[in-house]
Structure formats: C-alpha cells, structure tokens
Predict the structure of GGDEF domain-containing protein.
Amino acid sequence: AKLMGGGQIQHFSEELKQAFNRKLTMEGQLRAALDHKELFLMYQPKIALKDGSVAGLEVLLRWRHPQHGLISPVEFIPVAEEAGLIVEIGEWVLKSAVDQCRAWRAAGVPTVPVAVNLSARQFHRTDIVGCVATVVRDAGLAPGDLELELTESMSVQCPERSADLMARLRELGCTLSIDDFGTGYSSLSYLKRLPVDKLKIDRSFVQDMHQSADSLAMVQAIIAMAHSLRLEVIAEGVELQEQLDGLRAAGCDQIQGFYFSKPLSPEDCAAYLREHAAR
Ligand code: C2E
Ligand code: CA
Ligand code: CA
Ligand code: CA
C-alpha cells in the first residue's frame, strides 16, 4: 500500500464501492424483475447432424430492465446466484420452459426436448430432484421432455453428492449434459463416473477451430473421448461453415449456434419448429 499513492487507494476503494452499490442495486431490481415480469425466455434450436432435424432447444434467460434495456444473463446470473435469488428464478425458468413446451404441444406445434441451465446453487442447495419432478408432472409432460445443462465446475466441488443427484435426475427420465466442456479441469476418469448423457463443447474451442490447430485437436479429442464413453456430443457457438464442416468430419452429433439459428422468441420458435418438423 505504501508504493501506491494515497490517491490511488482512494480511487480503488471508490471503484469497489461503486461496484458494490451497482450489485446491491441490481439485486433489488432483480427481486422486482420476477414480480414485474421483466424476465423472459428465448429458445435456441439444436440441430442433429445426421439428418438436419431439430434435436432440442436450449432455454436462455433474458432480463428486460425498465431503464437499462436488455441485460445479459452473464451479468445478472452471478448476482442472482450470490443473493440466493437464483433459486426462485431458476424455478421460474423451469416452470416457464415446460409450460411453453406444453402450450406448443396444445397448439399442435411439433415439440422437441427443452434444455434448461442449472446454476450451482440451484443444484446443490435446493431439492432439485423434487422440484424437477413436480414441475414436469404439473405440466403434464414426460421427464424426457426436459434436458438439464450442468457445468463441470458444479460437480467438482462435491463429486459424490453431485453424482448422486445426477443419477436421481436421470432416474426421473431427464437427459443430463455437461455444459461448457473443456473449460474446467475434470479428468477422463472423473467424467466416466458422472451419470450424464451428453457433453457440450465450449464455444471458445468451436470458435477457434478453423484457425487454431490446437483448438481443432481439442475438439476432435473431446468428440472421440465422449464417444468412447458412449456420450453424445453437441458443439455450441457454431457460426461458420468451416466450423460446421470440421465438426461434421470429427463426428459431432449435434450443433447449436448462429449458423443455424439465434435464440428465438416463443412465436418465432414455434414457426421454426413447424418449418423444420420431420416430414
Ligand atoms: P451457455 O449455457 O453457455 O449458453 C450459450 C450462450 O451462447 C448463450 O448466451 C447463447 O445465446 C450464446 N450463443 C449461442 N450460439 C452462439 C453463436 O453462434 N455465437 C455466439 N457468439 N454466441 C452464441 P446467453 O443467452 O447470453 O447466455 C449466457 C450464459 O448465461 C449461458 O451460457 C448460461 O451459462 C447462462 N444462462 C442463460 N440462461 C440461464 C438460466 O436460465 N439459468 C442459468 N443458471 N444460467 C443461464
Ligand atoms: Ca447452456
Ligand atoms: Ca455452454
Ligand atoms: Ca459457454
């Protein structure tokens, strides 16, 4: 502290204070957002490479703030997580997603499984199994209509308990995927012990694979490894034809990204599902 001028320390703590205040403000506003219906969901198609059919949808949370406009989940999910609000929000996401699925079905839209992202806190500190079972049953859907996306880091903290929870969610009939794969530190043997169905290769590898030999090798290795463990592989963040070609050559099962579609509103998604239904 001696090396820094007093002014710098002052400046630093001022910045901290601002960041802290911003977070507090966001926390309060996020609490209100749920009540005021400022949260909504978008749906991004996942495409099966073997036949080009829609294999599923990822549910992505959005916040339309009355003053600041659209706020990214990257910004507000961590705040919600820390404030414990993610539990309520996460439940709302689950409910809304399965309700949407049921509404589509009632309207004769050909539906596919919807994939919901779970946060660490939601997974570890709530009765996630009971919650999922109730939500799915109340909506009159089958658990197979629901896919859950978990991250590697979530299970690393508490591997035994995580594996147990995952097994119970899978017993319900839900499909489980490991999200953002490749960014964490899980070893092959660790992965083998996790009761999951799918790996989702992180966008960072996909986006570099046409210009970086290392990323390409990484993607190819993940796909080969996943297949040897009888896991399906999906690549996220696919934007370019070259990326698609590389993934296809490597034997990737599913693709998600702007190349096929951006996240869609429920209306646009219904149209997309109708248009791309297997004929
Ligand atoms: P994620 O689970 O890795 O979701 C994929 C992100 O990549 C989404 O960002 C999606 O819009 C974006 N994306 C998809 N295709 C492309 C592409 O081709 N190019 C690029 N550049 N981006 C693409 P989004 O919607 O901003 O969500 C960011 C993160 O926020 C998600 O990352 C997820 O970790 C979290 N998140 C979103 N919704 C929820 C939710 O309901 N619950 C929880 N716990 N987390 C959520
Ligand atoms: Ca995800
Ligand atoms: Ca991801
Ligand atoms: Ca990601």
